[in-house]
Amino acid sequence: MKAVWNQVVIAESEDTVVVEGNHYFPESALKFEHFAPSTHTTVCGRKGVANYYNVIVNGQTNANAAWYYAEPRSAAAEIKGRVAFWRGVTVSS
Fold it and tell me: How many angstroms separate the Cα of 60 from the Cα of each of 3, 42, 54?
């Protein structure tokens, strides 16, 4: 699977976990030069507190376009150490 934004591959892995229709990539699959921590958080009743990254490609920032659960609840343990995408990031094989 590849995650692409602004015509640049920002993550790539054959080891994704699909939860609620979202592919969660291992952190090691991210091209970290395209990510900056965000202070934004949200709460999911099943998964816990989500933290976000801003995605930065070719001088453009896609705010909070990647999210992860640093300490997911036990019901979502399979996504610990994994990152998912939205806000125009295309995920495909």
Answer: 16, 23, 10
> Is the Cβ–Cβ distance between 65 and 54 less than 8 Å?
yes
Give the residue among 61, 80, 83, 63 at the shortest CA–CA distance from 71: 80
Number of domains in the chain: 1
Q: Which amino acid is at 46?
A: R
What is the CATH classification number for the domain harbouring 69? 2.170.150.40
Amino acid at position 12, single letter: E
CA distance 4 to 40: 22
Q: How far apart are CA 36 and CA 66, in angstroms?
A: 10
pTM recorded for the entire structure: 0.95
pLDDT tens digits, one per residue of 68-82:
999 999 999 999 999
Digit-coded pLDDT (tens) for 31-40: 999 999 999 9
